[in-house]
Amino acid sequence: MSGVQGFDPRTGQPVGAPVPETSDAGVDALARAGEAAFPSWSSLPAVERAAVLDAVADALDASADSLVALADAETALGAPRLTGELKRTTNQLRLFGDVLREGSWVEATLDSANPDIIPPRPVLRRMLRPLGTVGVFAASNFPFAFSVAGGDTASALAAGCPVIVKAHPSHPGTSHETARIVESVVPAGVFGIVHGQQAGVALVKHPAVKAVGFTGSTTGGRALFDLASSRPDPIPFYGELGSVNPTVVLPDAAAARPEGFAAEFVGSLTLGVGQFCTNPGLLFAPESLVPALADAVSGAAGGPMLNERMSDAYRSGTEGLAASGLADLVASGSAPSEGWSVEPRLFRVPLSGFAENLEKLTEEHFGPAAIVVTYTDPAELEPVLPRLPGTLTGTVHAAESEHDSAGRVAEALRPVVGRLIFNGWPTGVAVAWGMHHGGPWPATTNPLHTSVGATSIRRWVAPVTYQAWPDDLLPAELRDGNPLGIPRRVDGVLGVH
Amino acid sequence: MSGVQGFDPRTGQPVGAPVPETSDAGVDALARAGEAAFPSWSSLPAVERAAVLDAVADALDASADSLVALADAETALGAPRLTGELKRTTNQLRLFGDVLREGSWVEATLDSANPDIIPPRPVLRRMLRPLGTVGVFAASNFPFAFSVAGGDTASALAAGCPVIVKAHPSHPGTSHETARIVESVVPAGVFGIVHGQQAGVALVKHPAVKAVGFTGSTTGGRALFDLASSRPDPIPFYGELGSVNPTVVLPDAAAARPEGFAAEFVGSLTLGVGQFCTNPGLLFAPESLVPALADAVSGAAGGPMLNERMSDAYRSGTEGLAASGLADLVASGSAPSEGWSVEPRLFRVPLSGFAENLEKLTEEHFGPAAIVVTYTDPAELEPVLPRLPGTLTGTVHAAESEHDSAGRVAEALRPVVGRLIFNGWPTGVAVAWGMHHGGPWPATTNPLHTSVGATSIRRWVAPVTYQAWPDDLLPAELRDGNPLGIPRRVDGVLGVH
Is B134 inside any structural domain? Predict the structure, then answer.
């Protein structure tokens, strides 16, 4: 039987035994188990699902040491980062418990009858209900937070959907072990995991799978999006794909502290060997900042990337860019010589050259590479920024004196970004009510949705309206007297009533 | 130049002059005008957009007599229905004005900083912003309410999106005149109309169009959905397609008043010559109810359908069903002999035969045709109902004594329907906060969204999060002190704060 083998990126050597690939029959069995579990899981009172999420979080926390060691061997991301990431993952599970207990996520809406308007209105009660079994494609770069028990899984389980995860091949052992812990806590059929590319295809095509979440490359995401969209019954596919994350530093902000700014920029660029979807790959800066940026990149160390394919793609992509003559390679950092390590790279192009070759120069090179685009007057940026491909974040650095200019730059960026950051850095994504981790294509396949934060639960729920329905047959969320005490909209007015 | 010719369905004769088809250059000019108008229209304070919507409604109301006469000549739907439908359309525009003034549609969300959690949380402020120019495909069967100034247009304009409508060829004159009125009220570039099939294709493919709404057939909607999904940058496509609208009448409810029930059923079935997406095409009933149903259908009159294609499709579809032997034709009503008239038809099949040939017997025959599926025990329905194709509505008729059974039937229906109706009829769709007019494929292309009601505005907006953003550069909805006085979520808590 073929299997998925994990490797140590520091050495390129195998780690642990291969995990067997899941057969089509195996995928079918899990999807049918999800289908069978859906009625009871989805009708469990939300506060009881919240308790299950809390229990999953506790069980993962209890195994933190072994999970982190396993993940470090397969990803080389280091124990401190992985310890933090696992805590972020369990906090995320608990946030969704809070979301369920707060109760407004179902958008309970009650309208009284009005026979005197056109058209007449009967008694209407609307709420959101889960879609059914969800497929989740785990990412390479977050072995916990965007993986087996990550945000997609947490939000879908919270919504009341069974989940089947397609494990990422870069960390099969970590995925297997995380899945074992989740399975030990949730009811039978509510969670499953599959391994292997063919199993992923079978998952997206399975009639019992009602929606899919994905974090990964634009190429892989597009292929699966096309598969989901071309089903006899198309299903929602939420892919978080590529992102160049433009950062604009205005002249006064750049002049105020060039070395400090450059150090922060390179810190964000090289964090996790640049393997973040929010990695700042495109910097618009005055020419005068380039020496400090080049110095900082030259002094920075790279490290091992998560797998050989990504390491090769980074090298060939950045070497191709250097050879193309479209941008100048102005600095390279260092890297260990062993395993799948790569060094940071900084390219430079003037704004006019960037604008001429925008499509080519906004291809993402996943890893610690950036292009600095030099400009003279911030006003020159305004016609160029809206032409950028859709991206998760856009950042503006401005001095107190530059707010007007920052506002114009932000308005130019806004149509193409999901999150606007002021005097900060795009890496580090908070898990909160107000987070939006999304954006126009190719940042995601659907600009309405986020894969991080409380509202990511929306991806897995659809409305149902009960018209003139007897109170005793309504879900508790919609009954007279608001027995659950949740926020509801009654005749158009939001409140706890 | 080729043109789109309107016809009188009562006679099959041309009405008015043909309306010219829009060239690709014409579509491009409108899309570019929408793109140019987007920044100002989207940044207009919501209450000012509400005033524009009210003004559009007033202008349409002021032309009611001429619009209704024009629409009646092209659709044969009759002045009373069309007068009501126009009023529904203008009330719908005003509802979105109310939605904008209430303010919670932007989902303003404010999180304070918390550096002590993992991951740390910066100050985050999230709200929904419009996507850009929207394409709207008008429906044949609602020349006002799902057409040029219908729900898709009203909700997209409310959101801050310019709109380009693809007119339905069944009422080109009505569409042209309605568009002229809308254009006279809204700012330049915010609204446009195109005619002709090729113009519709160009609209869906245009890079400046960011989302599409559609109401129509499953075949046409699927073709356009595939076009939108296969763009280099896929865009959201919201299609409301076919629907069989199952109705279950439980034994005691059927026995209580067979003739009254049958009369109401046939009234809903033949309303508007059955040309509603909520037409009750599938009735699950005890065998004992069949004579009353057959009598009522035999005594019912049909009428002219909206166009020759639909009339032909209804005849060939129902005649093919009768010839197939899969269901028995048990009654036919009458119809005028002129124009594109069709008669109501009722078929009958026992539940076992229905379950065997479910796919074939749930094909929609748009028009006044229904299949009555006879059953003995309501429990027999429970495994069959979840196998129905996705549908806009599901209806249960139950006596007081039958609530338990009604609850089980409703749970079986719920996964495949968007709206559950108790002791009522699916035709007549209220425009309200609590309405959901949607459902799983093929009812719609996306089960998360509705094309009727306040929440239909969601289709045209996407979140943006401002991180650590200066208050003076934030949109008013997100500023300190809540200057607009709208409902917001602050640190997780909903309220006007």
Answer: yes
Instruction: Choose the mutation target among B68, B126, B209, B392 for the interface with A, i.e. most A CBs under 10 Å.
Output: B126
This model of the complex carries an ipTM of 0.97
The total of structural domains in chain A comes to 2
If asked whether residues B48 and B167 sit together in one domain, one would say yes
**Which residues in A lie closer than 8 A to residue B132 (C-beta atoms)?**
415
Shared domain check, A178 and A44? yes
**B45 inside domain:** yes
Among B82, B114, B225, B467, the strongest candidate for a mutation testing the A interface, having the largest count of A CBs within 10 A, is B467
In this complex, which of A87, A406, A494 lies closest to B494 when CB atoms are compared? A494
What pLDDT, in 10s, does the model give residues B425-437? 999 899 999 999 9
- Examine the domain organization and report whether B231 and B250 are in the same domain: no
pLDDT digits (tens, 9 = 90+) for B26-44: 999 999 999 999 999 999 9
Spatial separation of the C-alpha atoms in residues A111 and B433, rounded to whole Å: 7
Q: Rounded to the nearest 5 degrees, what angle is found at the Cα of B221, between the Cα atoms of B220 and B224?
A: 90
Q: Judge whether A479 lies within some domain.
A: no
In three-state secondary structure terms, A428 is coil
- Domain range holding B164? 3-241+447-461
**CA distances (Å), origin B322, targets B366, B369, B467:** 16, 12, 64
Helical residues (DSSP H) of A9-78, grouped into ranges: 24-43, 46-62, 64-75
In this structure, are residues A222 and A46 in contact, taking their beta carbons and an 8 Å threshold?
A: no
Supply the CATH number for residue B313's domain: 3.40.309.10
Please give the DSSP secondary-structure letter assigned to residue B390: P
| Same domain, residue pair B13 and B74 | yes
Strand intervals (E) in B287-368: 303-304, 328-332, 341-342, 345-350
Chain B residues near residue A415 by CB distance under 8 angstroms: 132
